[in-house]
Amino acid sequence: LAGTGGGGVFRMDLGTGIAARPGTTGLLAQNLPNPCTSTTLIRYELPVTTHVTLRVFDAQGHAVAVLKNAVETAGPKAVAFDVSQLASGVYSYCLTTGARSESRRLAVGR
């Protein structure tokens, strides 16, 4: 499904109810700053109220943090993540909502 609303164009996967703006792969944005040394901000947007899980994984695929595991209302969201206890390296963070998951990479440097 595609249409206009809120001053822009959108598309929605009818199977998942996840909307995305053109030029993006979905609702999960790249963390800022990246690379990071102490705290980074992870942003995402939910088109509907849904259960959200936001987890961070190391290079071996082990979960090192669970940042969200709750039902959240629709709208833009931001989570501050303290990376000061993580070793330098590349991690991934994954947002799961219903049947859809998106992930991005996060670099930690010292």
Task: Throw out a few tags for this protein.
disordered N terminus, 3-stranded antiparallel β-sheet, 110 residues, mainly beta
| Order of strands across the main sheet | 6-5-8-9
Unreliable stretches covering 5 or more consecutive residues: 1-10, 14-25
Helix proportion range: under 10%
Mean pLDDT rating? 84
Proportion of beta-strand residues: over 45%
Separation of termini?
Answer: 44 Å
Please give the largest β-sheet. 4 strands, antiparallel
Describe what you observe in this structure:
- The chain is mostly beta strands and 110 residues long.
- The chain is built from no helices and nine strands.
- The protein has a four-stranded antiparallel beta sheet with strand order 6-5-8-9, with no helix packed on it.
- Strand 8 and strand 9 form a beta hairpin.
- The radius of gyration is 15 Å and the shape is globular.
- The N terminus is likely disordered.
Topology record:
Layout: E1 2-5, E2 8-13, E3 18-20, E4 39-46, E5 50-57, E6 63-72, E7 75-82, E8 89-97, E9 100-108
Antiparallel strand pairs: 1-2, 2-3, 4-7, 5-6, 5-8, 8-9
Characterize this entry briefly:
This protein has 110 residues and is mostly beta strands. It is 0% helix and 59% strand. It has strands at residues 2-5, 8-13, 18-20, 39-46, 50-57, 63-72, 75-82, 89-97, 100-108.
